[in-house]
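Contributing new records

If you add data, match the layout below exactly. Sequence lines come first and carry their own label; structure lines follow with theirs. Keep one chain per record. Anything else will be rejected by the validation script.
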Amino acid sequence: MSDSILIRNGRKLIAVGLAAALVAVGALLTLTGSSSVGAEEYIEKKVTETVTVWPEQESATTLTIEGAASRSIVLDGTVARFSISVLDQSVLGAVSIGNSALVDVNTALLMGCNDDHPEQLCVPTEQLQTTSIRIYEEFDWNEGRRESVGFRYENSVSARIDGVDQAGLLIDTILTAGGDHVRFEGLTFTSSGRAEAERLAMLDAIDDAQATAESIAAHMGYEIVRVVELSPVGNLTASRTILESAEAAMSDEAFEPTPVFGGSESVTSRVRMVFELRPLTSEDE
């Protein structure tokens, strides 16, 4: 059987003849006492080795575009983070004083949840979350010697309310009820629609990149064949615009209410897309 080369669908199929090897196998079978008929049947089988060779692809013309888009977010929640911190000579003393101060804060936040005090802030207990509790000994240096000054008890809590209008009142209620044992750690605004806004911003960024690529390709006399690559660029960015003040109404006239500005927020998404182009032919035009 002679060697042969076949061309099919643009691929080279190389059929390598193995006649010499098969004859040797038949002779070996005869020497070992195998039936000559069996050896002939084995030799008659067509055994070929096929090697597929892909034709070299021509280099493609690509266009890389970055798209960006923003979506507005409605801020509809407020989270205040604070801790109760007490230093005492004994562990039990620090814990007892700290727990009492935290109970006072919780009571004040619940004040507006009943009909007797509708003007007060209402923060149900399920909207409070303990984030950490620490008890450790504190030391100070006295004439080059480290001396114990007592035990520190810290109970960190976050309080969540709906809306942003009462953010200032939330801060003032916590500070007034907890007194000197309160350490206010921060205030953040949240949005229940953030995930949907981020998703829509990503889709808008893709549309922006696609429209730009189509305009450039048409100007150059090309058309888009396919999208080769699509990937986000960096992280989502957020920007805030301060629009309104959240006022606090305190019963103590000597206390100056804390002004808090809610405002609005937007998220921006960016994507990088790589397009494959091909020149327009006279028929396409």
